[in-house]
Amino acid sequence: MTEILVVLAISIAAFGAAGYLVRWLVGQPSGDAEMSRVAALIQNGAESFARRQTGIIGALAALLGGVLFLAYGLRPATGDVVPGFELGVWLTLSFAVGASSALVTSRTATWVAGRGAVRAAAAAQKSVDAALQASVRAGGAVSLWIGAASALTTSGLVLALLVYHGALGEDPIPARALVPVAPWLVLGHALGASFAALLMQLSGGSFSKAADIGADVGAREAGLDDDAAENPATVADLAGDCVGGTGNRAAASFATAACEDLVMMLALALVYAADTQLKNALALVMLPLVVRALGQLGTAFATFIVRTDEREAPQAAVFRGLVVALVVHAFGLVGAVEWLLPARRGALVACAAIGAALGIAVIALTNYFVGLRFRPARDAADAARGG
After folding, report:
1. Which residues, including other chains, have CB under 8 Å from residue 373's CB and lie 6 or more apart?
2. Are 96 and 189 in contact (CB under 8 A)?
3. What are phi and psi for residue 172, nearest 5 degrees?
4. Which residues in 180-219 are b (16+ Cβ under 10 Å) and which e?
5. Digit-coded pLDDT (tens) for 12-45
6. HSE (side-chain half, CA atoms, 13 Å) at 142
7. Do 121 and 68 form a contact (C-beta atoms < 8 A)?
8. Distance (Å, rounded) from C-alpha 39 to C-alpha 30?
């Protein structure tokens, strides 16, 4: 059970770090009265849409959760590890946790984006470094929330399952026997998160695109600039960016993290069943969540060290932070493997090294294609002058 407690402790600490970043962010100046007025309009629009979206998707998720319970909870027992009714309960419960966590993640990211954007804009009047800190720390807070929420909810469900079957009682053997199949019983977590995130991506994207078109129409029909605060569709477009571009994308990232964790847990459960030399099923199954939790340490550390000056391109500072986060994460993975699975350290560390190298390569390649100092972006800018 130590593995689960470590994941829970680090996840709670990551939530604390995210809260500290948000507190720092809202303590920064939000600009003059006009900036604050426009920002308030955008925030109100984004949060109004997010509330409506949450209610509709929550109702649909409740309906699908009921169908899921009927499909699995009422079927006759056919030699399953747990009775059909209990299987339905765990799948439905994990589905509800996944869907609600995705919805809460979206609402949280929308709230942070609305306040972070205006403070980054106000900080840009002071210096590039101040604007970069505001934007990176806003994004870092959301990133920490996503990783911590995924690890916390998944490990919490596994812990609840094992405790229900007596892991803390006088006879923990039945609970230990359930460890290899625990990922299957909480698989609804990934399904619920993906279901909610998919609908949020569709609704937020549609809202943002409709507002974008409305801003263009307003510019033509009413003589309003498509980026003027007096154009209501412009405010709606920016609100759509908060919801669709930030909030709902954060929910999609949460769903991706949940799916990655559960797929790896399922794969390692199959490895445990096939490899008789592996004795500790819980250590094997919890390895992905321990690695996920330790990765939050790299995210937090990198978020705090990203700084720049007027001479350095902001992309270089962000790239440096990403590399630092990746390196810290890699060390965390090696430590987790050494702790939980030392018998297979060679293969797993080699895989981690390949993944880290590919991650750095992807970051560098992306920076090359979008960085203002490099040829692809300059060629695109030159081509735009010709129509």
Report:
1. 313, 315
2. no
3. -85, 0
4. bbbbbbbbbbbbbbbbbbbbbbebbbebbeebbebbeebb
5. 999 999 999 999 999 999 888 888 888 898 889 8
6. 30
7. no
8. 9
Mean pLDDT over 112-130 rounds to: 91
> What is the value of pTM for the model shown?
0.89
Measure the CA–CA gap between 148 and 118, rounded to whole angstroms.
26
Q: How many CB atoms lie within 10 A of CB 47?
A: 18
- Dist. CA 375–CA 225, nearest whole Å: 32
pLDDT in tens, 55-102: 999 999 999 999 999 988 887 766 667 787 888 899 999 999 999 999
Q: Which helix (H) or strand (E) holds 328?
A: helix 314-340
Specify the amino acid at residue 303.
T
Q: Please give the pLDDT value at position 101.
A: 96
d(CA 287, CA 339): 9
> Smallest Cα–Cα separation from 175: which of 163, 193, 186?
163
| DSSP conformation letters of 18-81 | HHHHHHHHHTS---SHHHHHHHHHHHHHHHHHHHHHHHHHHHHHHHHHHHHHHHHHSSPP-S-S
Contacts 24+ apart (CB under 8 A), 338-345: 339/290, 340/3, 340/280, 340/283, 340/284, 340/286, 340/287, 340/290, 341/278, 341/283, 341/284, 341/287, 343/277, 343/278
- C-alpha distance from residue 213 to each of 39, 220, 253 (Å): 21, 11, 27
Sorted by sequence, the CB contacts under 8 Å of residue 215 that are 6+ apart come out as 226, 227, 231, 233, 234, 236, 237
Q: What pLDDT digit, counting tens, does each position of 290-319 carry?
A: 999 999 999 999 999 888 887 777 888 888
Nearest Cα residue to 179 out of 268, 78, 54, 292: 268
